[in-house]
């Protein structure tokens, strides 16, 4: 067991203890003194592992095993007590076993203290890898296939502008950053233009003396000096000269901060090129960066043939196999070079090449000189903070080319116990920051952004996924399941028919060889086919996804036995009825069901669901003061109301004035269904100032009554769908101060009287099915932030007004405004 597993076990144990201590029943069933003693030890060990060094490797196994065993013991006891299966004798036995376990963990703490005393108070990071690149670029000429555009762009940046400029090149390991920088560094134009040039390899274990010495070695200076003397010598050498410096493989801005003062601003067009995998390094410099992407297929093929066959063509009998090999490299230049080098030396027989094509691990593991993709990608993993490692390895459980949605991934990370709690931030917010950091480190690729520029989903490069799986197997974090059996942390079936990850289990159409009901510590269950009669027998479940509930519309009261349940998701089906016991489950964080009814809260003491953030989609929710107090921290809420045979004043019947009490609410969707929902059914609705996103669907809100919505100080997204009372939207004093995205769909709006002052920061305007609208106010085009107007199935006069706005803006030099007429190419169309 290595660091990632040890840390994950420790943090998971802390989370489990926190959940027990906040549970209304279990909090009184465990010995507080024991828990306090255990927590103090675990906190100490977490701090130690966060400052881990390679020399402490032998301690990682005992630490992780002990935390793992302690958590198992506690969760099993919690399950027994929830089920009422514990006895006085079994409780005493548990307390004795736990005390013995605490003593064992404390003995590990003693060893850690002794270790820290032996090495000193400062624990160093791992030393530089022996396979790290040399201090200067390799002399071998490297092909620049697919890089012509980058070379031209970078050369253009090198010339002109008298001020000193820093030019970052960013991309994942193996993408070709160093290759690009080297090509430009050696380009005849750069050689001619700059008086002096120097190449400095920084690497993750930077050293100021070494960096300064490298620079001076290219400039002919003496290197046998102290840091300050080296810096002064470098500064003196560069003064009054136009210089080009390449800082290759920068992992931290601290490396630059140690030497930045020795690069003078001569006002003569000097340049510093920085290659990095870290987005934070790019952000630090604050200058435009050059992001290197993957090669397209044609350039990948040309590069492969150049490496594998030199001046020859690919033999016809091998072309089909070679194409498969190249496609598996997914445009990563380093992977293409490695597999091309392997096959270039291999027998050119179909049988041999087919064997290579079937073995993806060879792409990752084969090496002649240590410059393999796995070694470089592993360096990215090795450099991750310990709290990111388990989250990163977990990504290997998703299928190849899978869209990894942020909302799903963050819930899973939280359920698995990977996220260490911090003050003033929810576990989901911390998890989102982890995902963003993996994106910034180029280990995750952003697939699509939401309308408000947040990550919707990411993808994982195949080679990075292989790194996750192989590293996880090496560290006993999980491994690919081919036969039944294995350790608890994770078993993963590569056919994606089932997986059991960190106490997780997924079912699909084919029956799994694993029986989930024998997994007492099961945490994550995904049953899309609704094949389990009662999944709530697994009382340690934290995350449940079920298929449609057409045949079983009521969730049993036994769900309350799932004492640590955080997320409940039910896919489309008929309305699901949740029992009143749901109100007594304090660990709940997300309930997402296509349509649900929630039974009234039980009378008596109020159990506040402090962790509940998501509740959608609820039918006929009555916002009594009791309900609002129980869901005080809700962030996302979707509700549906129906009319009865007689006209219903929804605002009064469902106490909608109390919605304004929900001070943490950020996203609200309300739908009123039925022909009887007329007039002003939401006239009593009050909204909290925290709201950022609002959708009103057939709610008969009046155009003349938009003052309350316009006054919301944080509202960024507004969707008005269906029935809106009135034919004219006339602004008087209303100003949507923060509104960035406005969507209006299928209403009877005829006249819209507004100007730029009413929407000062609007970015997107989408209008659909507005057959009666005369025109879009011409002054809307004058909004400086406006990026797009999209019109779908609207009146001809509305279309013409949109075109007129675009033409007027173009005549004023505004080429950025995009106007789409009945075009479904708009990336924002699906937000209707």
UniProtKB/TrEMBL annotation:
<dbReference type="InterPro" id="IPR042197">
    <property type="entry name" value="Apaf_helical"/>
</dbReference>
<keyword id="KW-0963">Cytoplasm</keyword>
<keyword id="KW-0677">Repeat</keyword>
<comment type="similarity">
    <text>Belongs to the disease resistance NB-LRR family.</text>
</comment>
<keyword id="KW-0067">ATP-binding</keyword>
<dbReference type="GO" id="GO:0005524">
    <property type="term" value="F:ATP binding"/>
</dbReference>
<dbReference type="GO" id="GO:0009626">
    <property type="term" value="P:plant-type hypersensitive response"/>
</dbReference>
<dbReference type="InterPro" id="IPR058922">
    <property type="entry name" value="WHD_DRP"/>
</dbReference>
<dbReference type="GO" id="GO:0051607">
    <property type="term" value="P:defense response to virus"/>
</dbReference>
<dbReference type="GO" id="GO:0005737">
    <property type="term" value="C:cytoplasm"/>
</dbReference>
<dbReference type="InterPro" id="IPR032675">
    <property type="entry name" value="LRR_dom_sf"/>
</dbReference>
<feature type="domain" description="Disease resistance protein winged helix">
    <location>
        <begin position="397"/>
        <end position="467"/>
    </location>
</feature>
<keyword id="KW-0611">Plant defense</keyword>
<keyword id="KW-0547">Nucleotide-binding</keyword>
<keyword id="KW-0433">Leucine-rich repeat</keyword>
<feature type="domain" description="NB-ARC">
    <location>
        <begin position="150"/>
        <end position="312"/>
    </location>
</feature>
<dbReference type="InterPro" id="IPR002182">
    <property type="entry name" value="NB-ARC"/>
</dbReference>
<dbReference type="InterPro" id="IPR027417">
    <property type="entry name" value="P-loop_NTPase"/>
</dbReference>
<protein>
    <submittedName>
        <fullName>Late blight resistance protein R1A-10</fullName>
    </submittedName>
</protein>
<comment type="function">
    <text>Confers resistance to late blight (Phytophthora infestans) races carrying the avirulence gene Avr1. Resistance proteins guard the plant against pathogens that contain an appropriate avirulence protein via an indirect interaction with this avirulence protein. That triggers a defense system including the hypersensitive response, which restricts the pathogen growth.</text>
</comment>
<dbReference type="Pfam" id="PF00931">
    <property type="entry name" value="NB-ARC"/>
</dbReference>
<keyword id="KW-0381">Hypersensitive response</keyword>
<dbReference type="InterPro" id="IPR044974">
    <property type="entry name" value="Disease_R_plants"/>
</dbReference>
<dbReference type="InterPro" id="IPR036388">
    <property type="entry name" value="WH-like_DNA-bd_sf"/>
</dbReference>
<dbReference type="Pfam" id="PF23559">
    <property type="entry name" value="WHD_DRP"/>
</dbReference>
